Amino acid sequence: MKKPTHCQVLGITSGQSSVGKTTVSVNLAVALHDMGYAVMILDANNSIHNAQAALGTVCPYHLGHFLGGEKSLREIILKRRYGINLIAGAKTIEAMTTLDPAKATRVVEQFGALESELDFLIVDMPPGTETSVLSFMASTSRRILVVRNDQAGATDAYAMIKVLCSDFKLNEIHIIVNGVRSEAEGQKMFDMLDKISQRFLARPLHYLGSVSQDELIVEAGARHLSVTEHAPTSRGARDFRQIADKTSHLALQKFVEGGIAHFIERLLHLHDLTTH
Description:
Elements: E1 8-14, H1 21-34, E2 39-43, H2 51-54, H3 63-67, H4 73-76, E3 78-79, E4 85-88, H5 101-112, E5 120-124, H6 131-139, E6 142-148, H7 151-166, E7 173-180, H8 183-201, E8 206-212, H9 215-222, H10 227-230, H11 235-253, H12 260-268, H13 270-275
């Protein structure tokens, strides 16, 4: 197994709530870990249905304890089942944009020290098109948008794609379609979004795959398990393995400007991203 030359920072969000974004984030993280990759989740989702809840845990410390100097970065990292590293940061991540230079340097140095230890950093973002969400997505090197497989899902997804492409001039937007009855349905939804994006925004999208309607995914989530552990032969487990495989190959295709230190530096200058 070839590993990425740099840690890949994946921002995962959706145009609306209740799309399954956090389910995708956690199951993708576990599937990548099962392939032999070192994975960390930065839980930036402020809803009760966040990555901590999905993993059946509550982090005793969060990003605020690190930013305030009470804990080192390694002290706030919680290693969960499956070997997934987890940082809670939803309510304090915006504080990074107001740090003084000395604290900012400390943040960059300690996050940067993790670069050689991680292959993927998955940032589980809140849903929606608020400026803060889109700005955080702009800080990542690759953006993954989870789309619900219906017309409302397509409409909300395009609204987010439009802002990311038009206002932030971004590319590297990858699509995962959730809740499909067949792979053909997922491909059809992606093709429609890609056609519209290329026609009106001159931006091609990238397809990572789709996730089936599978009650075993819901059942696994209720038990705070990944579907690959709960039902390893299920359609849902198959889908996440396929998406993880495409993600791993994506990481080897080319190095997108990024890495953990670059991601953190962009977060520290988030005000610049939203005002220029």
